[in-house]
């Protein structure tokens, strides 16, 4: 089968793009009442999930919510079997009951057996879900009337939701959101220091229970739209993505809520426009795109920023070592052989050696002379002197204060000498002087 | 008819093979607290499968396994990556990775379904065990042992049999290395076994078992069988070897019991069969619930019994010591009220009854009690241990004499017979001689 013609190759699986006008209509909420309701509902859901998800993340409960959402399935089937008809509030009530039961089972397993959290969560998740599947198969064969929609709870079916179901979902999400906003302070204190909160007189158990209850409420609300396998990712991904951007809780909450809302909006819009794009999967993938962008491009905690920072620091340290080496030799010029020998001693690769030389030259510490040798500029000499002096100071400190044998200090000093601040150097000097330690003096004391 | 070869043989074989291979591997996941990695992998092999299928346009097992193994390793690597750079706990990192990958898989399946490709998202969850019907099955078990049987065995069952053999080989050949890596991976590394490599190898095997089981029994059963049997076995034993054997037995119970309770039990009540994979997962939960209560070493019931026994022994010791101290003060027959003061337990009456039953204490009238000959011996042993501990805590540990009573009150119940010691305790009281 050649690609592009076969029925099952990737290239062939493309959808017809809807007209531009239709896209704009849907995006700007003019594509009809039902579509708008779904879009508004999932956006609210994303917002609420992002908000409460932050606290679930901070309490290390991310995967407990996964077990919770899987444990809702037997409740849905049981509610349907008992009632014999599909009524969303009743089904969601059943879902809530078994969901909470699942969480309780995890707690009981943790408290009364030697099983760890991971095993307990996995057990509850699979056993409850297995029970739900048994119930579903029973319903499909033995009670076929009107049971068609129950499958939708597994993978979600936002596009075909009834308006009043959407209203119910939106209302639950809105209520959870408002409750979270009102309880922000209480949740914060319990998340960061529950022992302090208890001493300070807060009802920690009650607050914790409320937090868990809101997680349950949001999970159950999202079941029909996103599906029970993926609803948990609405609670997990936005907060984890937001975590890359900030260390402050208020900002974290806001960013997570925005990411959740954007994902919900995009997911429902895309699934309204394209026939075979299930909203749940699209919502999660949108959140995943936000996550990937955050992980790589966030200014301080992103992968790229961290890599650059690390590389810069490594370069600085390697350069410092070279300058210190020159200083300790008492030379301002290093021949090519000496330079390569030094690189070999430190196990630098050829590229790395060249990069160190380049970065030093760029900073104006060295100048290149003929035959691959280098000569230090005044700034380079001063820097080498300072590093060498810091090295000696810290070494003295470790020997005289921290009681480390003189033969053991050199290695740890090599790591610390680059990060000593000016203040710390002054402090070390005065501390050592008080002890009557001879402070290493150098010919040129400059650089500060 | 309980067992119809044509209807039941292959589904049952598939279920047993899948359950046992998952249980074997699951032991190491549970020990290394990686149970949820099994969960994550079983979700995230989905896109691997679909992509492999879309690229090769076949359902050839090799392509499927390659896709699954790549997806499995990618999950582990990505989780590690997110954990390190995202600085989140591993649960959240797993949640992020597997839900994104699973969503990708669902989307790809929908795309494939648009082209009438036979990949069903539902069957990923609960498998197609019921479709493994053998139409030309022999009537009796005797007819099974022919070459024809082998030829007509469905592909899924063959694949699962190979997976089982691989899993058994992996666990038996690398048992020593796996054990070392599970309990002390740093030591494993210093001894020259590459623990990281072993970790990834285990993950590849988990992904392989997952994908082999997918078609037949679905991912629910995979997760349940990875975790439940090993968890049950953990409750029964502390030895890795017996844990593995125990987990295999539990896997057999779950798969066979679950299968029959899904197919035969309902038909006995006149209703149609329910989903077998789900029933097996439920069976896992039931076995675990029973194990939680009845396990002799770690079960709830035995722990309650042990605790009550211990508190009974402590109460008895305390009673004897209290009467002994009263006797020392010249009060040979202390009243119950007097004993109640020095005796913190509310169950004084019950303890006295038990002591009387053991002929350590005899009541005088309704209010007073007295130590018997053997009671005196037992009581002086307790008081001797108490005072020797006090001596030790003051002389050797260096505690102040007025700080040692509470600690000694706890330590006096420890069984070992104390060595010869001094004549008196730090408070100047005589340490009774031991009876030996």
Structural overview:
The complex is a heterodimer of chains A (448) and B (436). Chain A contains 20 helices and three strands. Chain A has 448 residues and is mainly alpha-helical. In chain A, strands 1-3-2 form a three-stranded antiparallel sheet. In chain A, strand 2 and strand 3 (374-376) form a beta hairpin. With 436 residues, chain B is an all-alpha fold. Chain B contains 17 helices and two strands. Chain B has helices at residues 5-31, 35-56, 61-86, 90-113, 121-126, 147-152, 155-173, 175-183, 185-190, 195-236, 240-268, 276-294, 300-328, 336-342, 348-357, 373-397, 405-411; strands at residues 361-364, 368-371. Chain B has a two-stranded antiparallel ribbon with strand order 1-2. Chain B is elongated and about 95 Å long. The mean pLDDT of chain B is 84. Chains A and B meet through helix 3, helix 6, helix 12 and helix 14 of A and helix 2, helix 3, helix 4, helix 5 and helix 10 of B.
